[in-house]
Amino acid sequence: MNVPATREDLMIVNMGPHHPSMHGVLRLIVTLDGEDVIDCEPILGYLHRGMEKIAENRTIIQYLPYVTRWDYLATMFTEAITVNAPEQLGNIQVPKRASYIRVIMLELSRIASHLLWLGPFMADIGAQTPFFYIFRERELVYDLFEAATGMRMMHNYFRIGGVAADLPYGWIDKCLDFCDYFLTGVSEYQKLITRNPIFLERVEGVGIIGVEEAINWGLSGPMLRASGIQWDLRKVDRYECYDEFDWEVQWQKEGDSLSRYLVRIGEMVESIKIIQQALEGIPGGPYENLEIRCFDRVRNPELNDFDYRFISKKPSPTFELSKQELYVRVEAPKGELGVFLIGDQNVFPLEMENSTPGFYQFANSSSLIGEMIIDTPEVQDINSFSRLEYLKEVYGMIWVLVPILTPVLGITIGVLAIVWLEREISAGIQQRIGPEYAGPLGILQALADGTKLLFKENLLPSRGDTRLFSIGPSIAVISILLSYLIIPFGSNLVLSDLNIGVFFMDRYFKYCSHWTSYVRIWIQ
Which residues are CB-neighbours of 50 under 8 A, at least 6 positions away? Predict the structure, then answer.
């Protein structure tokens, strides 16, 4: 860690180690100058170490339950990469139905991972409500996982050459219902979060990672695509059957926290599109290639020998890995998840190295330098709409209200002006100076009397008919509103034909005079 030697008032703060259900298993040693981060050193390796060594002493089937602990939030992807490596090593064909089922499970797992990113991310920047909302949809995803695999998180569902079991009866219909429901949930997130001015103030222009920096640090996934690079392994490597579906790579070019948020929101919508297409076009056939199963050589163990007593009476099905080496990768929710596998003509891998996206992303701690300490969890978590578009919408709403508020304001000012003029004339006739001259030139008295006339004055005579005087103002207001249907107004309330407008206003004032005459006759 490089700490400036010239500064003496710096503060070193430990952030973490965090629990895996929060921001990943890491520890950050942050050097602060007040509230500004001037240096950050990541410390990794606090959970589930030794996975690669365990793989050298297990068959692929025995090793599958271990790999789900790599990433609790996207367990399907760790299983997928573990079986894809020996499949490509042995050129094993996967049935079409099994490939479709895999794509469905992977995209559901991507949605679940992005949801649990979204909730804590919003909580870190001060919005607690989305944290509770995301569990609503995430529980539905886990219900689908439980119905298909029997487990909600650690599924152990993928197999070499297919999957462990076919989809149960009615599962496809339930998954389609979830897709329709989830799209409304994403719209709710966008209305609640995306255009929120406080949210934009916290994430826009924060934690910027440029194109060259993203490439040099080896970033992948949403971190890379948010910096302006359209790189998605589902399009590049064309694994499984992703090339059979219609979907788009989500990317942004600003490289800040807002861009990474928009990429993940867009990816959830694209995942729903992929799932819907896969569910509607899923073919029949087997869900696992059983022909590629091979067994150990036939043994005839004696009753008390080592194999009979300590290993098993019947050998379980295993897969012999040919003497080759290869690197296989998939597009996980956080980025490129890869496995380097070396076979040695044995059921155990000679070597199995893992490449996880979080290792490279957390190594890029330089993106925290220059930010404030309050923004550190936000940049760490995220490891379109702009403000101009938001202001345009606000201005548009204001212009919608202008035609409504203008007549109301004009009527109010007109009433106050008439009352002020009536008071001035009354004072001039009576030739007196008194309460009529409250304020400069009597303006305050006119405002007070006009306000009373508008809100408190009771104009109903003692012998007047209540119903008649109640509907009178309504008729006057309705006639004014009807004028908009007759007078040919143009844009911004401009008269298109003044002759028709003058003719209508003449008829309107004559109608009002007749109404006044009827009221006087009724009172008398």
Answer: none
Pairing of strands 36-44, 162-163: unpaired
What is the token pair recorded at 269?
Answer: 């919508």
- Taking the alpha carbons of 122, 364, 266, 203 in that order, is the dihedral positive or negative? positive
Could you give the CA distance from residue 356 to residue 35 in angstroms, rounded to a whole number?
A: 32
> 330 by DSSP, 3-state: which?
strand
Q: What residues contact residue 418 under an 8 Å CB cut-off, 6+ apart?
A: 450
d(CA 248, CA 230): 10
262 within 8 A of 254, measured Cβ to Cβ:
no
Alpha-carbon Rg of the chain, whole angstroms?
A: 36
Distance CA 99, CA 286 (A): 11
With residue 195 as reference, give the H or E element that holds it: none
Alpha helices in 150-227 (DSSP H): 171-189, 197-203, 211-216, 222-225
Neighbours of 52 (CB within 10 A): 14
| Residue pointed to by tokens 């788009």 | 248
Task: Say which amino acid occupies 169.
Answer: Y
Three-class SS state of 175: helix
DSSP for 24-79, please give it. -SEEEEEEEETTEEEEEEEEE--SS--HHHHHTTS-HHHHHHHHTTS-TT-HHHHH
Judge contact between 185 and 307, C-beta under 8 A.
Answer: no
Measured CA angle at 22 (ends 333, 222), to 5 deg = 25
Distance (Å, whole) CA 329 – CA 106: 14
pLDDT in tens, the chain (524 residues): 454 445 567 888 887 776 544 555 677 888 888 778 888 888 776 666 688 888 888 888 888 888 888 888 888 999 999 999 999 888 888 999 999 999 999 999 999 999 989 988 888 888 888 888 898 899 999 999 999 999 988 889 999 889 999 999 999 999 999 999 999 989 888 888 988 888 888 888 888 888 998 898 889 999 999 999 999 999 999 888 999 999 999 999 898 889 999 999 999 999 999 999 999 999 998 998 876 665 444 455 555 555 555 555 445 556 788 888 999 999 999 999 999 999 888 888 888 888 888 878 777 766 665 555 555 555 554 443 333 334 444 555 566 667 777 777 777 777 667 766 666 666 555 555 554 555 555 666 666 666 665 554 455 555 656 666 666 666 666 666 665 555 555 555 555 554 544 445 555 555 555 444 444 444 44
Q: Which two tokens stand for residue 207?
A: 């934690």
Q: Are 26 and 46 in contact (CB under 8 A)?
A: yes
